[in-house]
Write a structure and sequence with these properties.
Length: about 140
């Protein structure tokens, strides 16, 4: 991990780096089954409702994660990681999870949550303690 750096981008700086972030963040958005768009994600990052974590290697952004605190009606708080995309996952994922855990603790969250749109994500994260708790599938109804 020493060659990669993880940074949380302040909301007022998202616009400044958006051209570098956009092609990377578009990848998981394209897998979101039309639940989010680039415009929606950018707006939530610019307004501060969602945090942007960037992973850089030699001053180049190689990956992104979005983070948001969600509180359930029961009071349970989780740090949700809805979008993850980029390259060289093995060089930064473990350290990112440590960073996300520290952020979660700062917000009094009890869990990290994310989406694994491919089975490979489950294999990659199992050693860190992640377990599947549900699977979302979808079928379009023909008209």
């Amino acid at each position: 991990m020493s060659e990669c750096k993880i940074s949380i981008v302040p909301a007022n700086m998202v616009e400044c780096i958006w051209s570098m972030v956009e092609p990377i963040i578009k990848r998981p958005i394209d897998l979101s089954h039309n639940e989010v768009t680039l415009d929606i994600v950018k707006e939530s990052l610019v307004t501060g409702g969602v945090m942007l974590a960037v992973i850089t290697k030699e001053a180049k952004i190689i990956a992104i994660n979005t983070l948001e605190v969600r509180t359930f009606p029961t009071g349970k708080k989780v740090l949700y990681i809805p979008l993850t995309g980029g390259d060289d996952l093995d060089s930064w994922m473990d350290e990112f999870i440590k960073t996300a855990t520290q952020i979660a603790l700062g917000y009094n969250c009890t869990h990290l949550r994310g989406l694994a749109v491919r089975d490979g994500w489950l294999r990659k994260l199992k050693h860190l303690g992640f377990e599947p708790i549900s699977t979302t599938i979808e079928m379009e109804i023909e008209k």
